[in-house]
Amino acid sequence: MTTTLSSRNRDSGPVDIHEELYGAQLPSWAAKAVIGAGVLIGLALYLLGVNLVLAALVVFVVSLALPAWSVAVEGRRKATDRLVTVLVTSSFVLAMFPLVSILYTVISNGARVLSAEFFTYSMRNVVGEGGGIYHATIGTLLITGGAAVISIPIGLFAAIYLVEYADGNRLSRWIRFLVDVMTGIPSIVAGLFAYALFVLFFGEGVRLGVGGSVALAVLMIPVVVRSTEEMLKLVPNELREASYALGVPKWRTVAKVVLPTALAGIVTGITLAVARVIGETAPLLIIAGMTDSVNFNLFDGRMATLPVFTYSSVRSPGIPPEFSIDRAWGAALTLLVIVMLLNLVARLVSYFFSPKGER
Amino acid sequence: MAKSIDVSDLNIYYGDFLAVEDVTIPIAAKSVTAFIGPSGCGKSTFLRSLNRMHEVIRGARVEGKVLIDGQDLYGSDMDPVNVRRMIGMVFQRPNPFPTMSIYDNVLAGQKLNSKRMKKAESDDIVERSLRSAGLWAEVKDRLDRPGSGLSGGQQQRLCIARAISVEPEVLLMDEPCSALDPISTSVIEDLIHELKTQYTIVIVTHNMQQAARVSDETAFFNLSGVGKPGRLIEVGRTETIFSNPQDPATEAYIQGRFG
Predict the structure, then answer these.
(1) How far is A240 from chain B (nearest CA, A)?
(2) What is the ipTM of this complex?
(3) What pTM was computed for the model?
(4) Most exposed among A78, A191, A216, A307, judged by the fewest C-beta atoms under 10 Å?
(5) Where are the domains of chain B?
(6) Residues A265-304: tens digit of each pLDDT
(7) Min CA distance, B163 vs chain A (Å)?
(8) Interface residue of A165, A248, A353 to substitute, partner B, most B CBs within 10 Å
């Protein structure tokens, strides 16, 4: 290897060290210039009346000029790098489109509806203008809270069993398999399950808030089990051994060493699971039903929720329809804000509760 | 307080695999016994069987007798939790609890068992343990800071303080210095010399100089081949083992011809 290198050097005479090290490179502004040009062209086309998708496609095609230019100047390796960079970045932008679009639509349609009245009035005896989502907000918070109360202990203890006590036995493999299957249950099936369950006790046509909690809990449990299990697995075994070596029984080790160490991750997982089920519509439509009045009692009668409220406001808006549809946008925005707040809480929790020190 | 340990005809298994075969060794009270030997010869496995930490691993079991002051550790009515309260352990890698402060780490044995103590009493235990571990001067102003913020050597001494705060009879150390620099190592070796006056200490080490420096007795473990069980080859006064070993394998290992 060394001999071939030195012979080449000798043959070609003195080497231009600068050329050798830096090679042929596109100017540093090349990427910005090409992408900028693409965006300008796309924007111009859009303003001239070409539709948005086509304009975005043009931006993408123009960006491909960058790897083409690169292959001419810099060679294969760097051209491939630039091509992949363009592809990855465009995929990201593409993925952002629906998100930004949803946020924009919901905020622009919903924001103007929000008012003190909107949050503090129910729909009782309201026809046309006015009214609010107080009853639906209460319903959503109560039903989701109920779902959390049911699913957190079950999910948490199941995960503790799987990680700390099961030792990979047959039962644990079955639980894992069933939890994976449960993750894929369509939400309507969870709703029908809850309905069928409550029909056993209360007869046909039953509508109960707590039924909604049960349906949402069925959807939440697998998420809680899985995320908690992953977090418990992350706790180093050395900590368990350190605790055992101090003469601490296993259950205290789990309760006082393993759980606190994994707490941040567990709480984050639970919060995200709540955020995931709070927007479910189908199961609540079946079992919690819809009403225009405030109902604080999970165990008595129908309860309105934000997703179902949104659905029914659009489905049967009444005459004239504008007010009802506006309220639907407002409810959708409220739901979106609640989900964002939950995500924010999850982040804060993982920030404040993670073990300090090394990190 | 310190107690002696008598091991006779001990076989240690991982499932069906015999890891350590037929160990018989007396360990005197208030002395330092070092286990040396090549990797995989079962020193650590044997050490862990002395406070029943071995059986934390699934499928691991033990045959034979381990007597501590005449009591069989593996007796049918012996509670492993009580055994571990009596025989403390320091691990290879420092492992302070990341969710606890330095103060709470030292008191972990008491706190995790929800033992109620007056503030003055727990302050006293913390100071005494940290002083014994030679860490008091370095951390006395930041006892409420997380234990994982300390340096590696300090963390290991914190773990020693944690182990001795429950006042065990015996202290097992599994290569306590292998992750540490020479200065921290020498601090811990000095510490072992001081702790010897109160505790029975058993230490596993890969470092023969360390065994020669700290121990009164040395036991040499070896295995005859890959997949074969580890055996105790020779045990005796450290000076004798290092100057005039009986077994040729011991001599070869000590002179650095293998291992």
Answers:
(1) 10
(2) 0.89
(3) 0.83
(4) A78
(5) 5-93+170-254
(6) 999 999 999 998 999 999 999 999 899 889 999 898 899 9
(7) 7
(8) A248
